[in-house]
């Protein structure tokens, strides 16, 4: 009797996912995602009803369907070969509290476990305190990824979320790149040297345009430093 109940529940979950995959395929056919500038996030031109957009990254946009709150769909707008690397990264990571889970992949899209929470970027914007434990959670998640043979890259304030009091990395699309990346190290350094002694003690709201200026300034700083280091060789 117990096994019959498990089998019945499994069949329901399977049909649930199959129906969601069909809806996702339709979304994938209808959606148009533009890449106006290689240095800016991709931009969906249209979002078919009742889908909602959760956010945009350098390569892909993320959507959810209100009838399927446990999943999100990540659709690539450029650099689609990165989808296969992201799929392989999730396969290597398996189930870990510091990451999402990939349930399904197909041409141009992935279906992922939805992580509900707030990014570190939005925490700073809204004046919400970021506990030190969140930074430690990400450190542990990155160590785990390295132990699994991955090369964590492009981990920054928009790719890290606080969910149920835990830090989670929500984008692993660059975890197969072997190029060195200092984004998390620099963010971590800024947290302990600037954020923790000042903004954690006296939280204030910081406008997005200011955060965007800091982001562009950081990008320019890293390029300049890389250029200087190359000139010394």
UniProtKB/TrEMBL annotation:
<dbReference type="InterPro" id="IPR011009">
    <property type="entry name" value="Kinase-like_dom_sf"/>
</dbReference>
<protein>
    <recommendedName>
        <fullName>Serine/threonine protein kinase</fullName>
    </recommendedName>
</protein>
<dbReference type="InterPro" id="IPR052396">
    <property type="entry name" value="Meiotic_Drive_Suppr_Kinase"/>
</dbReference>
């Amino acid at each position: 009797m117990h096994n019959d109940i498990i089998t019945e529940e499994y069949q329901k979950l399977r049909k649930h996912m199959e129906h969601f995959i069909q809806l996702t395929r339709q979304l994938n056919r209808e959606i148009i995602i533009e890449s106006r500038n290689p240095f800016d996030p991709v931009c969906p031109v249209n979002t078919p009803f009742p889908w909602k957009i959760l956010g945009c990254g350098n390569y892909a946009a993320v959507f959810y369907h209100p009838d399927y709150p446990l999943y999100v769909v990540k659709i690539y707008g450029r650099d689609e070969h990165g989808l296969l690397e992201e799929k392989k990264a999730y396969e290597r990571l398996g189930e870990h509290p510091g990451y999402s889970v990939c349930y399904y992949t197909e041409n141009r899209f992935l279906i992922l476990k939805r992580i509900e929470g707030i990014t570190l970027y939005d925490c700073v914007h809204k004046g919400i305190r970021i506990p030190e434990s969140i930074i430690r959670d990400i450190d542990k998640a990155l160590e785990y990824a390295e132990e699994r043979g991955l090369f964590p890259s492009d981990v920054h304030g928009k790719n890290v979320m606080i969910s149920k009091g835990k830090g989670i990395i929500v984008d692993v699309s660059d975890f197969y790149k072997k190029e060195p990346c200092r984004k998390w190290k620099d963010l971590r350094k800024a947290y302990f040297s600037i954020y923790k002694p000042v903004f954690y003690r006296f939280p204030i709201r910081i406008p997005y345009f200011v955060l965007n200026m800091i982001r562009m300034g950081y990008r320019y700083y890293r390029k300049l430093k890389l250029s200087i280091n190359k000139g010394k060789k």
